[in-house]
UniProtKB/TrEMBL annotation:
Residues 43-182, 212-357 form the SIS domain. Its main location: cytoplasm. Catalyzes the first step in hexosamine metabolism, converting fructose-6P into glucosamine-6P using glutamine as a nitrogen source. This is Glutamine--fructose-6-phosphate aminotransferase [isomerizing]. The active site is at 362 (for fru-6p isomerization activity). The lineage of its organism: Bacteria, Bacillati, Bacillota, Bacilli, Bacillales. Its EC number is 2.6.1.16. The gene is glmS. Keywords: Aminotransferase, Cytoplasm, Glutamine amidotransferase, Repeat, Transferase. Coiled coil: none annotated. It catalyses: D-fructose 6-phosphate + L-glutamine = D-glucosamine 6-phosphate + L-glutamate.
Length: 367
């Protein structure tokens, strides 16, 4: 209950293990994944062979969509695009009956996302929605809805919405890989294992990072800028971390693909500037370490987020935050936890209304 936390945002961050369990309930079984809505959809639409997938969404839901793009592209052998809904509705590439559109919206009422969906339907594309709200406009207008079952999210900042959306996308990717015989089918057993322990791993992240993040938030109090860097899925996560810090702590936080720093942004790295370096993707770790060394050489204050026991990352950063190791596709769920907590504590330290940030609304019903 709210009194235990003081703010909806913290309450909702803490609710994530339970929210994820609800997303997985009755869908994740001992032997695989069952989403009857998706089976019905394929049966009715006879969409046996989509040629491309476009994921449309706004804000944090778009970041979940960008994660989904990388997962679906790896699991299926179909080009996948993650489009910003407000851009997509103005300009988009080819759309037809062979296109599968996945529209993601927590509220299901975001005007930009609904306009994108209408645009897609006009061209004959099939639409699967991922939403948290039954009877929302998005749910009503889509051919199929996968509900996230995150429970009400009242803080303006999306937290459990994001982690449950990624969870739903991973479930969907497993179902689609089976149906479409995607080359990622081989990854399914490992993904199932990771999904079975996901809620517990999120719980561990909360315990492992909360105090250290609370302390680091004090350091950000007199800072004007903060950078987040990462590669691959860690880059997308950096974008989400930056959005949260801008929204809740009014801190100028910017995310960069770590390898891009040398192409311009490195000029902004001065002694003491805080940099959060995400290094959760095992196959990109060596490159991530090189990028960390580059910012350290300019005397940035680097906090590394990596998996438990990674001594190589901890050796090159000022502070390290360990999180449990999971399948790479699920690391953006786990590593989101310290970033959400950072936005929350930084907002509190700076004295802001973390649940109702200025100039923003929970549901954007105008374009
Ligand atoms: O309800 P939606 O998922 O469609 O909302 C989309 C964005 O407005 C939302 O995710 C926004 O970016 C969050 N407040 C960010 O924390």
């Amino acid at each position: 209950n709210l009194q235990d936390y003081g703010h909806y945002m913290l309450k909702e961050i803490m609710e994530q293990p339970e929210a994820i369990k609800r997303t997985l309930k009755d869908r994740l079984t001992e032997s695989g994944v069952v989403i009857p809505e998706v089976d019905d959809f394929f049966a009715k639409r006879k969409l046996t062979d989509p040629e491309r997938i476009i994921i449309v969404a706004s804000g944090t839901s778009h970041h979940a969509g960008m994660i989904g793009k990388k997962i679906l592209e790896t699991m299926l052998d179909i080009p996948v695009e993650a489009a910003i809904a407000s851009e997509f509705r103005c300009e988009h590439g080819r759309l037809d009956e062979k296109t599968l559109v996945i529209a993601i919206s927590q509220s299901g009422e975001t005007a930009d996302t609904i306009s994108a969906l209408k645009e897609a339907k006009k061209s004959g594309a099939a639409v699967i929605a991922i939403s948290n709200y039954r009877k929302s406009t998005l749910a009503r207008k889509s051919d199929c809805v996968i509900y996230t079952h995150a429970g009400p999210e009242l803080a303006v900042a999306a937290t459990k919405a994001y982690t449950t959306q990624i969870t739903a996308l991973v479930l969907l990717s497993i179902v689609l890989a089976k149906k479409l015989h995607g080359s990622g089918e081989g990854q399914i057993p490992a993904l199932l294992d990771a999904l079975h322990s996901l809620a517990d791993d999120v719980e561990k992240c909360l315990v492992m990072t909360q105090d250290a993040i609370d302390q680091f938030a004090q350091v950000t109090n007199d800072q004007e800028h903060l950078f987040l860097i990462g590669r691959g899925l860690d880059y997308v996560l950096a974008l989400e971390g930056a959005l949260k810090l801008q929204e809740v702590a009014y801190l100028h936080a910017d995310a960069y693909a770590a390898g891009e720093m040398k192409h311009g942004t490195m000029a902004l790295i001065t002694p003491g500037v805080p940099v959060i370096a995400l290094a959760t993707q095992e196959h990109l770790r060596d490159k991530a370490i090189n990028n960390i060394k580059e910012v350290k050489a300019r005397d940035a204050y680097v906090v590394g987020i990596t998996t438990t026991g990674d001594d190589e990352v901890s050796a090159v950063v000022d502070e390290v935050l360990y999180i449990p190791e999971a399948h790479p596709f699920l690391m953006p769920v786990l590593a989101a936890i310290p970033l959400q907590l950072l936005a929350y504590y930084a907002g509190i330290v700076r004295g802001y209304d973390v649940d109702r940030p200025r100039n923003l609304a929970k549901s954007l019903t105008v374009e």
